[in-house]
Input
Amino acid sequence: MELKINNQIVEAEAGELLLQVALRNGVDIPHFCYHSCLSIAGNCRICLVKVEGQPKLAPSCNLIVAEGMEVSTDCPEVQEARRDVMQFILNDHPVDCGICDKAGECRLQEYQVKYGEAEPLSLEDKHPKPKFYDLSPRIQLDSERCILCSRCVRFTQEISGSKQLGIVERGHSARVERMDQKPFDDPYSDNVISLCPVGALLSKDFMYQSRVWYLEPVKSVCTGCARACSIQVWRRKQEWRFNSFGDELNKKVYRITPLENEAINGPWLCNKGFDMHRTMSRERALTPMVGGVEVSADAMIKAARKLVSGAQNPAIIISAQASNEELKAAQAALTDKFTVYTRKDYGPSHGEVLEDDFMICLDKNPNGDGVYRIFGRNVIDNPLEHDLVVVWGDNLRHEDVAGARLICLGSFASGREKDREVFVPISTLFERSGTFTNFEGVDNRFEQVFEKPSSVLHAADFFRRLSE
Amino acid sequence: MSDQRIFMNFDVTADSHNLAAYRDRGGYQAFEKALREQTPDDIQAEVDASGLRGRGGAGFPTGMKWSFVNKQAPVVYLCCNADEGEPGTFKDRWIFEHNPHQLIEGILLASYALRVRHAFVYIRGEFDLPLRRLREALQEAYDANLVGENVLDTDFSSDIIVHRGAGAYVCGEESSLLTSLEGFKAYPRNKPPFPAVKGLYQKPTIINNVETLATVPWIMTHGGAEYAKIGTEWNSGTRIFGISGHVNNPGLFEKEAGYSLKEIIFEDAGGIRGGKSLKAVIPGGSSTPILKADEIDTITLDAENLQKHGSMVGSGGVIVIGEGTCMVRLLQVLTRFYAHESCGQCTPCREGSALMNAIISRIIAGKGRSEDVERLEKTTKGIMGKTVCALGDAAAMPVQSFITKFRDEFDYFVEHGRSINDGRLEI
Output
């Protein structure tokens, strides 16, 4: 059907909401409470538009389009209504942007600049509410900044299903609160942080770490489970690099946020995904070693080649954390005498959700599916009887490889690097790019966030050089 | 002017509210007749012909409301809105206390007309005697097989469920009544969809006021045409008006629609207490715009006339204000009420009602500023017509009408830090 928005004819499907149609056609209607994945609340009232022939302004988030409808989104009446709503919202808002982590990506700031009025409506004292209040060890709530759009409440009711948040009290005293006395321990709780259009819900992990305008996101993939959700890894922008505080702050991941990906995760991510940067900042193993002695990369590869050529019956254990590109490089490098085993290098850690019917998968590795596609399934069920085993990835069960000589490829320190015949330090997820295939067979690409340390090798390079 | 009474047509005694007394007055005959001889559409036709309009405040034609329901829908619910919380209104309470069976018969007739299996009565939490009377009456009706399975050995079954509210004014708004009935926090819903399409548990639902439903038995006994003869052309029937405030004889008076406001104040209610003169009238419950004494001469209590004078007939609660009353303080009473009762869902009402109350309270405290009245006016404009439900408008309308009509009192209070009426209620 056709309708007119601001005298422009636009196409729409029956049953669509005017807000959706407008946003799709590049007409910017401000909105706080509307979210495409949540039910319609219609409570912020900033998306009011004028419909020709209707006496009252209508909220565009709850307005179903009709043939021939004529809508104005910027007539004086609508502008005035927006100004009024902005003034109402800011009545009790503390406007403490100076100490608010949301500043820079806050809708309230954005709309105040675009649609607000400089003069406040109210001269009254601001209404005090709980401030800097912990909902859980991960999330801090500031009820004074909250505009009661109920997005977080609807998220726990409709998406994660924990129903842990609600709005208590009435009228002016209404505030978001946990519905029981427990901490807000929903495994998807951190989504409410990015869902919050203002600075009411903030991550305690990212709290006061950086202003968001100094940061930039890099597209990446979460390695927490076989769903391989798209994420954004936030690093400091090149032009804002620190010169005098040391390089750590420039090579630090400040936070992880979900990246909207219809095919895999929608706009959501579980808490494990939000913690990816912590997983990746464990102590690294950075130096190549041969027989417990630190050597150069060339010497290490030479030693590895010698071991492989001397082996009668070598085996390799493939990592489910490796990208498809690395797996193919390994496949090309391996000769027929290798027996290939597959394994899940990472299992669930203590207290982690094993599996649920929303997003979290039982397999805690991102590329189990890619490994099976390239190498087939050959799980280790008995202790291996090989004279040489190439172990790719962390978390080796030593009883599986007892008696064999080991070439180990690992990123993180296990404390046993010195015991290996050859130890190859390899790059982490953030230091390389590639593709994972998730458990539903969808490919998901990740980009390099940081340069790898010079002493470390990409696993693909190692296999290539091994076969030279 | 006809003297026809639909509610107050019997002597109230200690037993007049029970089933036997109601039967003696001809009760449940209309229902029995309808059940045995008439079709649901006959009832709809009579209600259409009667021109009955909702008594809750908005005055929407009842027959038209009923006709919005899809007759083929497998489940239709009926809710009786008995959350009578509007300040100045106390008419439903009388019906519960003295004639609960008339309401039950009305609910049964409506249930039969709308093919309703389960009807709900959402009764105000503060009502104690009304609730007990309703429960007693319902028990009597169940025992007499007037409600329940196979009523009077016919195919018609009906259950009436009484739900007691928890004291929120906003539950009187029909969609938040449904949300509350479903067990959630009473937030009004966005419309469309209207309750007649998607109401209680997402099923078509009709919500009617107590007085509206209790009128239906009379209409079915005497016919819709007879009912339409009472009252004015567009406002048929009688209404129970509750007169409160500075009058000698406050109380409930059943008058036909279109009755003179002046007459009801000065004759039925006995005039202003202490021989004082009239200052103002709030004609239909606290949220309707106020009228000054010099405006009321030509006013009759029907929707058209009051609308012409910039007010509303609302729920029929007439609040009479005598001379010497400080309008600033009176407005503070109202704004405090609305600020307290705003559910907090949508921005303009949540923030606006609190802001209006804060400004007026500051004026009362003697700290008024010259721009306060303009700010109040701007706030009301920001609220009106922009909220989810009508509570925002209800909060803003009195403020708007008070400051337009009694501007001098507000200006005086702001300037001098005290009331033009010397701060005392002289009544």
Remarks:
- Chain B touches chain A at residues 168, 185, 190, 192, 339-348, 350-355, 358-359, 362, 369, 375, 378-379, 381-382, 385-388 (CB under 8 Å).
- The longest strand of chain B covers residues 238-245.
- The mean pLDDT of chain B is 93.
